[in-house]
Design goal:
The complex is a heterodimer of chains A (94) and B (216).
Chain A lengths: L1 E8 L6 H12 L12 E6 L6 H16 L5 E8 L14
Antiparallel strand pairs in A: 1-2, 1-3
Chain B lengths: L1 E6 L6 H11 L3 E6 L10 E4 L19 H11 L3 E5 L1 H8 L6 E3 L7 E9 L15 E8 L3 E3 L2 H9 L3 E5 L10 E5 L5 E4 L17 H7 L1
Parallel strand pairs in B: 1-2, 1-3, 3-4, 4-11
Antiparallel strand pairs in B: 5-8, 6-7, 6-9, 9-10, 10-11
The chains are: A alpha+beta (94), B alpha/beta (216).
């Protein structure tokens, strides 16, 4: 299984990197872009010996304890049975 | 007094802190490897600046899981003095010993310059030798010193007098110009500026020395 984890800054938390990217996009001519937030994407490979529900619990624990800092960041994730399994599991996003 | 300076993989201000304590202040000071587990005989612990674990994921995020951090947490709960400088401050935030988190500097740049700090409180064990409102010169050297905490947390910091140092001119976007905070009890202090690099006239400022002297 593969977990795809998305970590984003919470609303209201200043994102200097996002602001700089936004300004660059604006100056490139994309005038209709009013905000950009830059986050992190993490892929974790999980041994097939555990159930998907267990994997979900594990990933949540990983996010809470290490991968995200919940003072400033939110996280969401999806668990795919395999990399090829992408489309079949689109609705698995937690 | 017996001091311990923790060395994480990637610490680079450990020797500076050791030097000031040992050779300027003639203290009993020892390096502690991040895998060490016994702090029983120590009076004060310094988490030095640097780039522990390469600053991977987030500054201080990995160092928090070093075996010694469990001991540092226990040590602080018993009232032991813990000082986190720069990356050490970030580690204190990540390990939950101090509230809040660090964001990238508003300028997105690594800032290395001498700044002016105002002493907000001098009742803290680390600031007893300063006057309240006194201005100090100390260098900063960081890319992630933009302190953040939610409104509720900020109110708590202010109500409890936990904001110990503020920048006179905000260099990094830090909320309310916060440069250093303590825990509620006051025995854990974290600050982004480097007092250990401002403890000898040769280096341009001796304003940092009194922070260590306050404890001794």
């Amino acid at each position: 299984m593969i977990a795809r984890i998305y970590i984003t800054l919470k609303e209201g938390v200043l994102d200097p990197q996002g602001k700089t990217v936004q300004k660059s996009l604006n100056s490139l001519g994309f005038k209709n872009i009013s905000d950009v937030r830059v986050g992190k994407y993490i892929e974790v490979k999980i041994d097939k010996s555990i159930k998907k529900s267990q994997a979900q619990k594990q990933i949540q624990k990983m996010c809470d304890e290490l991968l995200a800092n919940t003072v400033i960041e939110n996280y969401s994730f999806e668990i795919l049975r395999s990399a090829q399994d992408d489309r079949a599991c689109q609705d698995d996003r937690v | 007094m017996k001091w311990g300076v923790v060395v994480f993989p990637g610490s680079n201000c450990d020797h500076d802190a050791y030097h000031v304590l040992k050779h300027v202040l003639h203290q009993d000071v020892h390096f502690l490897w991040h895998k060490d587990k016994n702090l029983k005989t120590y009076d004060a612990i310094v988490l030095p600046g640097g780039f522990s674990y390469g600053d991977y994921l987030r500054c201080g995020a990995m160092a928090r899981f070093s075996p010694i951090m469990k001991e540092v947490i226990q040590f602080s709960k018993k009232g032991g003095l813990v000082l986190g400088i720069c990356n050490g401050f970030q580690i204190l935030l990540e390990s939950g010993l101090l509230p809040g988190a660090m964001l990238q500097n508003a300028s997105l740049k690594f800032i290395c310059e001498t700044v002016t700090l105002a002493v907000e409180h001098n009742r803290n064990p680390f600031t007893k030798k300063y006057k309240k409102g006194e201005h100090l010169q100390m260098p900063i050297a960081h890319a992630e010193g933009n302190y953040f905490i939610d409104a509720e947390g900020l109110k708590e910091l202010e109500d409890n007098g936990q904001i110990i140092f503020r920048y006179v001119k905000n260099p990094n976007g830090s909320l309310k110009s916060i440069a250093g905070i303590s825990n509620k009890k006051g025995n854990v202090l974290g600050l982004m500026p480097h007092p250990e690099r401002a403890s000898e006239a040769l280096l341009g400022s001796t304003d940092g020395l009194r922070l260590f002297e306050s404890v001794i």
